[in-house]
């Protein structure tokens, strides 16, 4: 029991120490920019537990998931096609390279023109920023499928759709997940940025508005929400990846026995 | 049942290109165990790809029960050399074996029964829920053989299937294959570069030279059932062994 608990406690130790240190320091600092931790915590509770959750966090999450989800679907589908069809890949490559080099926030003014402050503009921006890592990784993953696995499927007369679904897609899985992981953090960044520029709600909007109203504890509470959101989504993502890619670590001999 | 007639395979469209298979002709009878012996690079793998319908021949033809092979036939299974790359690591052993069956029209119940029977036949009953990467190399190749068997083939093509396991495992797998061959009455075309293995297993050994063409045929009249110790002690075994060895050496000297 203690042997299992010890690493968990060790991991908790540093964050707790930082929080305690900051709490002690901020309580006596009397700084306008760094309000006491207790005040931030109170604001966090007052703002985010009910009203803020519904008014700002849910809209933010909605945009994030819509944009990220669309990116995953688009990126994987297009990646499968481009990974398998050489002509299409050659033709699409310059465009992909240009678009992915373009910083997505550069298109915020354009998105404003096109969509105004509607959610679709933010979703559009998130898709535009997050689809490339997924697309490019999927292409690489598809191209890296073992020829012998495809030969095997061919020799057993396995039809094309099953080869795609049961062989190409899982074989590309590790690369697809690598792309999705990169894209997830980009998606969170773009969600916040787009909400700061053109929005009437959302956590990013809340943080900026609080700062403009000199409501510093509120501002900090919003930042904490964003941190917790990013951390939680990444944690969920890793659990999800674990379930899909356990075979990958297993076949590479990386399935350690002491995983918690 | 299997006829190969003047088979020729040239990669690329260049008229100057050297063929991988040139004027290859032989026949395999129903239920026969034929070993094809050749040194590496003599076009064995290309030949098997043409036989299995994975690659089209440049000229000549392959007939299975009188029907030209233009794609992988439904009553043929192919066992690849590299089990680690022909088994799917994201599927359990049982799912690997059953994977081709649903597409061959087996019902879920039939597929399960065929899978259990095949795993039983290769000595892996109860391993269905493992994953290939949890098994040793020899066991993985057994899974590949089980998959081939469950498919209910009338002919089994095997491309150096035991080349990458240790000697002890190899001997076990050879004996396993002989038992399966006798039990299921399947025809086997087995490619190898190992003379002992060819003589031990086969009814008939064909020696190939590069580009793949038959240079020598040896009938193996050793008694069955065969055993690693008894069979390999026989003077006829040693005779066949040296006959094939000198044939291979002649080919290499000529090349």
Can you characterise this structure?
The complex is a heterodimer of chains A (about 260) and B (about 260). Chain A is mainly α and about 260 residues long. Chain A has one domain (about 40-250): Orthogonal Bundle (MetI-like fold). Chain A has ten helices and no strands. The two termini of chain A are about 15 Å apart. Chain B has about 260 residues and is an alpha/beta fold. The mean pLDDT of chain B is about 90.
Give the helix/strand layout.
The complex is a heterodimer of chains A (260) and B (255).
Chain A: H1 2-29, H2 37-48, H3 51-84, H4 86-101, H5 108-115, H6 119-143, H7 147-155, H8 160-197, H9 203-212, H10 216-251
Helix pairs in contact in A: 2-10, 3-4, 3-6, 3-8, 3-9, 5-6, 6-8, 8-9, 8-10, 9-10
Chain B: E1 2-9, E2 21-28, E3 33-37, H1 44-51, E4 59-64, E5 67-68, E6 76-79, H2 83-86, H3 93-102, H4 108-121, H5 137-150, E7 155-159, H6 167-184, E8 187-192, H7 195-201, E9 204-209, E10 213-219, H8 228-233, H9 235-254
Q: What name does the CATH topology of the largest domain in chain B carry? A: Rossmann fold
User: What is the residue-mean pLDDT of chain A, rounded to a whole number?
Assistant: 90
Please tell me the CATH architecture of chain A by its name. Answer: Orthogonal Bundle
* Strand residue content of chain B: 15-25%
Tag the structure with descriptive keywords.
heterodimer; A: 260 residues; mainly alpha; MetI-like fold; 10 helices; 0% strand; flat; disordered C terminus; B: 255 residues; alpha/beta; Rossmann fold; 2 domains; 6-stranded mixed beta sheet; 4-stranded antiparallel beta sheet; 9 helices; 10 strands
A few lines on this structure:
The complex is a heterodimer of chains A (260) and B (255). Chain A has 260 residues and is mostly helical.
């Amino acid at each position: 029991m203690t042997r299992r608990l010890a690493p968990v406690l060790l991991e908790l130790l540093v964050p707790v120490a930082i929080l305690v240190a900051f709490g002690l320091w901020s309580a006596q600092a009397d700084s306008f920019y760094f309000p006491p931790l207790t005040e931030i915590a109170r604001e966090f509770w007052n703002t985010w537990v009910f009203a803020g959750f519904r008014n700002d966090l849910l809209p933010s999450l909605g945009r994030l998931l819509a944009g990220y989800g669309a990116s995953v679907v688009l990126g994987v589908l297009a990646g499968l096609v481009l990974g398998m069809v050489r002509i299409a890949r050659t033709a699409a490559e310059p465009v992909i390279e240009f678009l992915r080099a373009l910083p997505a926030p550069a298109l915020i003014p354009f998105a404003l023109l096109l969509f105004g402050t509607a959610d679709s503009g933010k979703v559009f921006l998130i898709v535009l920023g997050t689809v490339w890592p997924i697309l490019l990784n999927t292409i690489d993953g598809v191209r890296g499928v073992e020829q012998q696995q495809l030969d095997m499927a061919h020799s057993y007369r396995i039809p094309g759709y099953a080869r795609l679904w049961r062989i190409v897609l899982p074989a590309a899985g590790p690369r697809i997940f690598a792309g999705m992981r990169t894209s997830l953090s980009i998606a969170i960044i773009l969600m916040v940025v787009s909400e700061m520029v053109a929005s009437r709600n959302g956590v990013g909007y809340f943080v900026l508005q609080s700062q403009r109203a000199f409501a510093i504890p509120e501002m900090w509470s919003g930042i904490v929400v964003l941190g917790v959101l990013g951390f939680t989504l990444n944690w969920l993502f890793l659990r999800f990846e674990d379930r899909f890619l356990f075979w990958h670590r297993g076949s590479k001999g990386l399935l350690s026995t002491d995983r918690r | 049942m299997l006829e190969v007639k003047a088979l020729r395979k040239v990669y690329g469209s260049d008229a100057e290109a050297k063929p991988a298979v040139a004027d290859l002709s032989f026949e395999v009878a129903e239920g026969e165990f034929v070993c094809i012996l050749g040194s590496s690079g003599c076009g064995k793998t290309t030949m098997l790809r043409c036989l299995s319908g994975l690659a089209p021949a440049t000229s000549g033809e392959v007939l299975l029960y009188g029907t030209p092979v233009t794609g992988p036939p439904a009553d043929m299974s192919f066992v690849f050399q590299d089990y680690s790359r022909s088994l799917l690591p994201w599927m359990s052993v049982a799912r690997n074996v059953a994977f081709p069956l649903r597409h061959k029209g087996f019902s879920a119940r039939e597929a399960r029964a065929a899978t259990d029977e095949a795993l039983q036949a290769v000595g892996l009953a109860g391993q269905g829920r493992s994953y290939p990467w949890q098994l040793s190399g020899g066991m993985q190749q057994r899974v590949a053989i089980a998959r081939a068997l469950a498919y209910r083939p009338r002919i089994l093509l095997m491309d150096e299937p035991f080349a990458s396991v240790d000697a002890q495992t190899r001997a076990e797998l050879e004996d396993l294959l002989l038992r399966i061959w006798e039990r299921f009455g399947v025809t086997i075309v087995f490619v190898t570069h190992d003379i002992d293995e060819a003589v031990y297993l086969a009814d008939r050994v064909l020696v190939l030279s590069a580009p793949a063409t038959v240079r020598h045929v040896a009938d193996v009249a050793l008694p069955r059932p065969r055993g690693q110790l008894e069979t390999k002690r026989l003077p006829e075994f040693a005779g066949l062994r040296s006959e094939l060895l000198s044939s291979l050496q002649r080919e290499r000297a000529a090349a």
